[in-house]
TrEMBL record:
Gene Ontology cellular component terms for the protein in this record: endoplasmic reticulum membrane; plasma membrane
Name of this protein: MSP domain-containing protein
Protein's job: Endoplasmic reticulum (ER)-anchored protein that mediates the formation of contact sites between the ER and endosomes via interaction with FFAT motif-containing proteins such as STARD3 or WDR44. Interacts with STARD3 in a FFAT motif phosphorylation dependent manner. Via interaction with WDR44 participates in neosynthesized protein export. Participates in the endoplasmic reticulum unfolded protein response (UPR) by inducing ERN1/IRE1 activity. Involved in cellular calcium homeostasis regulation.
Membrane topology of the entry: Single-pass type IV membrane protein
Organism per entry: Champsocephalus gunnari (Mackerel icefish)
């Protein structure tokens, strides 16, 4: 006896397409719709259960509703000469009005009550020309960005070259400037602490000590800023050399 026609609507109807590369999990969706006025139990089966993960792989589809089933293909080594023989089957059965156990419904269902639809799997690997085009586009974009960055550099920076000895001298100078800046910051901190002690000792002389401390701070700040600016310029030169 022929089985009844499938009451569920499948989208897609005949094949599940998976688009590579297949070095990672590839997911495609299967939409199941129930246009009837009855609840329908469904199951999604495959001929290669170890190669796919299906969520959900079974359930009850209420009347007039739909559901998206995610079919996840596990990573594998793709061979374009190997034709996929994997297939999926969506099996369904009308749920009885007084249903309490879905597994019991499947066990008690008669063969002439079961409905099924079959879909084949198709593996679609992107064309090599598309990959090459994408790589060339990326190279062109990178090249244009490099050119635009180079055009913003001063002529001297573009034409200057340094040998290893000069680079070493510059690095040593940067290190010396760092140490000098650190020393000035420590001196500045110590002067502020000394000014604070003097202010606590004598309230009468506080205004004089404050003015002296401010002059020293200004002098140190000017020296510190000059070293920082020099350090920044040297850092820019070194950065351009590395790039």
């Amino acid at each position: 006896m022929a089985r009844p026609e499938q009451v569920l609507l499948l989208e897609p109807q005949h094949e599940l397409k998976f688009r590579g590369p297949f070095s990672d999990v590839v997911t495609t969706n299967l939409k199941l719709s129930n246009p009837t006025d009855r609840n329908v139990c469904f199951k999604v089966k495959t001929t290669a259960p170890r190669r796919y993960c299906v969520r959900p792989n079974s359930g009850i589809l209420d009347a007039g509703t739909s559901i998206n089933v995610s079919v996840m293909l596990q990573p594998f080594d793709y061979d374009p000469n190997e034709k996929s023989k994997h297939k999926f089957m969506v099996q369904s059965v009308l749920a009885p009005p007084d249903m309490t156990d879905m597994e019991g419904v499947w066990k008690e269902a008669k063969p002439d009550e079961l409905m099924d639809s079959k879909l084949r799997c198709v593996f679609d690997m992107p064309v090599e020309n598309e990959k090459t085009h994408d790589m060339e586009s990326n190279k062109m974009m990178s090249s244009s960005l490099l050119k635009s960055d180079s055009s913003t550099l001063p002529p001297k920076s573009m034409s200057s070259t340094f040998d290893d000895g000069e680079v070493k001298k510059i690095m040593e100078e940067c290190k010396r400037l760092q140490m000098e800046a650190q020393r000035l910051r420590e001196e500045n901190k110590q002067i502020r602490e000394d000014d604070g002690l003097r202010m606590r000792k004598s309230n009468v002389m506080s205004s004089q000590h404050t003015s002296i401390g401010m002059k020293k701070d200004e002098g140190l700040s000017v020296r510190t800023m000059a070293l920082i600016v020099l350090f920044f310029v040297v850092g820019v030169i070194v950065g351009n050399l590395v790039l």
